[in-house]
Design goal:
Number of strands: 11
Largest sheet: 6 strands, antiparallel
Shape: globular
Strand order of the largest sheet: 1-2-3-10-5-8
Number of helices: 0
Helix content: under 10%
Distance between the termini: 43 Å
């Protein structure tokens, strides 16, 4: 039986912080997101994937659909496909999230932005 080999790791800088792809397989992608204090990601959705977030450091201000709350270290958040969501760090320390993506596409082009502090489309 042949098994898939994980893709190599890479990191990308963003205006809000950075992300590192820890593992990429045909059926999932695993990322570490680091959000700088006072920053947030765009209000967005993905048509082709769902996401699972685990807060590993800090407190995340999370919006999923019409609900917003603070998730502390150790909490898990589920974001269904085609659901607006946002991640923000309103604290004074770094926020770290482990993100597991599942679906039919993990491309960055599967981001539909509704609001963005950095005027990205």
């Amino acid at each position: 039986m042949m098994t898939a080999t994980p893709a190599s790791l890479y990191q990308e800088e963003r205006p809000w912080g950075d992300f590192t792809v820890l593992q990429e397989m045909p059926h999932y992608k695993l990322k570490q997101l680091r959000v700088q204090p006072g920053h947030r990601l765009s209000l967005q959705l993905h048509n082709h994937r769902e996401e699972h977030w685990i807060v590993t450091q800090g407190n995340a201000t999370v919006t999923v659909g019409s609900k917003t709350w603070v998730a502390a270290t150790g909490e898990h958040i589920y974001i269904p496909a085609q659901t607006q969501h946002r991640l923000a760090n309103l604290e004074e320390t770094m926020l770290e999230i482990i993100e597991v993506q599942q679906g039919s596409s993990f491309a960055e082009e599967d981001i539909v932005r509704f609001e963005d502090d950095y005027t990205r489309v």
